[in-house]
Amino acid sequence: MEFTHFDENGHAAMVDVTGKDVSERMAVAEGTITVSEECFRKISEGTIEKGDVLGCARIAGIMGAKKTSDLIPLCHILNLTKAAVDFEKDAEAHQIRAICTVRCKGRTGVEMEALTGVSVALLTIYDMCKAVDKSMEIGQIHLLHKEGGKSGIYDRGA
């Protein structure tokens, strides 16, 4: 396998995507945060002192997806046409699942934007709840699905 982020001299380089066709790109990523029973209850009731945890985390995740190229070296700047973050709560496991969906028309994929959106959303939950629960655990961050480009469709479950 050849690494694409190195030039002929072995130096780091941004991949030149000029010759690639513009196509619709889409990616969905997810991750989880496990919290204490008390913390889960307070998030669900909306009684965390800092405010609406999931509302803030949603906005932060969208902002994170939009700022991916500022955070990940050699990542292309993309003109996103959609960035959304949703949450699913599992009361039994005291776990919140964040799902980030990102779309654009471009020459390179949006997987990093979806993964960054999920990561920032989960980190925001941690930040807003750390006064209640310092034992929170973030994990299971991964790409679920992607479409577009030369490699076509990827489905983690397939």
Task: Report what the structure shows.
It is a single chain. This protein has 158 residues and is of the alpha+beta class. The protein has a single domain, classed as Molybdopterin cofactor biosynthesis C (MoaC) domain (Alpha-Beta Plaits, 2-Layer Sandwich). Helix content is 29%, strand content 30%. It is built from 4 helices and 5 strands. Strands 2-3-1-4-5 form a 5-stranded antiparallel sheet, with helices on one face. Helix 2 packs antiparallel against helix 4. The longest helix has 19 residues. The relative contact order is 0.27.
Features of the shown structure:
alpha+beta; Alpha-Beta Plaits; about 160 residues
SSE map:
Elements: E1 23-34, H1 37-45, H2 53-66, H3 68-71, E2 80-90, E3 95-106, H4 111-129, E4 137-147, E5 154-155
Antiparallel strand pairs: 1-3, 1-4, 2-3, 4-5
Helix pairs in contact: 2-4
Short description:
With 158 residues, the protein is of the alpha+beta class.
CATH architecture name: 2-Layer Sandwich
Q: Could you estimate the helical fraction of the residues in percent?
A: 25-40%
CATH superfamily: Molybdopterin cofactor biosynthesis C (MoaC) domain
Total E-strand runs? 5
